[in-house]
Amino acid sequence: MTPRVRIAPSPTGDPHVGTAYIALFNLIFARHFGGKFILRIEDTDQERSRPEYEQSIIDALRWCNIDWDEGPDIGGPFGPYRQSERTDTYRKYAYELLAKGGAYKCFATPEELAEMRKKAQEEGHRGYDRRYRNLDPAEIKAREEAGQPFVIRLKVPLSGECIFDDAIKGRITAPWADIDDQILLKSDGFPTYHLANVVDDHLMKITHVIRGDEWMSSTPKHIFLYQAFGWTPPTFMHMPLLLGKEGKKLSKRKNPTSIFYFRDAGYLPEALCNFLTLMGYSMPGDKELYTLDEIIGTFDPKRIGTSGAFFDIQKLNWLNQKKIIDTIPLDQLWQRIAEWRFNEAFLQKLMPLAQPRLKTFGDFFKVCDFFFINDIPCTPELLCPKDINPDQAAVLLQGMIWDLDAQEDWSGGAFEKASHKVAEKCQVHHKKVMMPLLFAAIMGKHQGPSLYESVTLLGKDQTRARLLNSIEALGGISNKKMDALKKG
Ligand code: GLU
Q1: Dihedral, CA atoms, 302, 306, 310, 312, nearest 10 degrees?
Q2: Separation CA 158–CA 179 (nearest Å)
């Protein structure tokens, strides 16, 4: 049987390095075993999904030199590959499952659900109390005729255990009683992740589901769906998580996680890919520096790790440096650097910022250095306005990140508005927020071209990373304080 594997990202945010990490292992698996690798876009969350995020996923993966055999942009025999174009299919299967007895209609109102949630919190158990699980068929009919909205829920067994063999983690056992009656089809007729994911994996003939460990807790629900439909489940392979500095799942709250951050910081895609595969896999002889072709050629799923791996930037820097030295011939190095930032298009954009500040051309680098530097100097002395301590300065910067994320706009204009808002909220004069704090955070100095125009040119990922770095230089904000601030 030809293996068929897939990644199924949801286009709800910036293209995450975790997506590239999982994509790489799917690609390596497919190429090693002569199979197919599919990109499927899971955009069932209508509120959070955006076409521009889908495009960024595609662009980011292509920048990493990750290629797929079937996908929304190139088509294929099992399309469409975008879930929003397949909703009729999910509806059909939800009703088929109802007929087979693997699901039921639930008429719980928002008030009922809120009351169940409250009770569950007080008593410390699962939220939904399965009250519509055994409704009389006549009552179901009457409620439907009265036009009552309903969802379709999974009818998970009440006793026994779900047992499956994960090809990485080994045998997994989960008591059915711990698994909730998941909503499969919402009252608006749209599917949830679980239904759409399983139906598509089945229809697209996926043989191996290689995904992150965070989906492990959903797998029993998926296994039950396969059983209830009478389908053969694929082999599940749950990859170790990428961990941030604190040993928790890598999150954008503390680290740059967008693939575009690494592109814009001047990393080589081949180094990022080498690094990401190293996070989940050990090559024979613990070889650390290798090409994608090498890992494809020698791939052995048994060498995939079982516990989380630290996303260690120092390691990535080391690998990147090695690749620059070992793999880029000297006569091609300039061309690679030029492709990165020293290209006509980017330099032209810098001219309006540089021009008013050039006494001689010799000033160009002094004015624009921060566009070409990753390690912006950011000490508390450089960052902190007079009468504002590092803690308060860190809160101001965090406020900027929240506001810009909430606006989903990181342009200079949005940055300007956010700076006024945080100044007002924290009762600090706007001038002080601008200078020295924001100037220093973005440029590493107190003088330079227009801050807002610079932010527009630097782009979201560099700007965000610089604010995060500065927060860290100021001593950071503890998770506890962060939560308290969020509520406040
Ligand atoms: N849509 C899920 C995601 O965003 C897919 C998880 C899976 O691979 O099943 O990652």
Answers
A1: 0
A2: 9
Asked if residue 197 lies in contact with residue 7, where contact means CB atoms within 8 angstroms, the answer is: no
CA of 348 relative to ligand 1 center, distance in Å:
40
Nearest Cα residue to 398 out of 340, 470, 344: 470
Q: Where are the alpha helices (DSSP H) in 185-268?
A: 193-203, 219-229, 259-264
Q: Which two tokens stand for residue 250?
A: 């890598």
197 lines ligand 1 (CB under 6 A): yes
Which of 4, 5, 10, 182 has most ligand 1 atoms within 8 Å of its beta carbon, as the pocket-test mutant? Answer: 10
* Closest to 128 measured CA to CA, from 104, 102, 161, 149: 104
Phi-psi region of 172 (alpha: psi -120 to 50; beta: other; left: phi over 0): beta
Contacts of 60 (CB under 8 A, 6+ apart): 15, 19, 20, 258, 259, 260, 263
More confident of the two residues 153 and 120: 153
252, 323, 432, 460: which is the annotated catalytic residue? 252
pLDDT tens by residue, 141-159: 999 999 999 999 999 999 9
Q: What's the CA-to-centroid distance between 40 and ligand 1, angstroms?
A: 9
Active site annotation includes 252: yes
CA gap 313, 170 in Å, rounded: 30
Residue type at 332?
A: Q
Mean pLDDT, residues 432-453: 94
SS (H, E, C) 211-231: EEHHHHHHHHHHHHHHHHHCC
**DSSP structure string for 387-403:** T--HHHHHHHHHHHHHH
291 close to 65: Cβ distance less than 8 angstroms: no
Contact 211 CB / ligand 1 (< 6 Å): yes
CA gap 401, 482 in Å, rounded? 12
Q: Is the pLDDT of residue 201 over 70?
A: yes
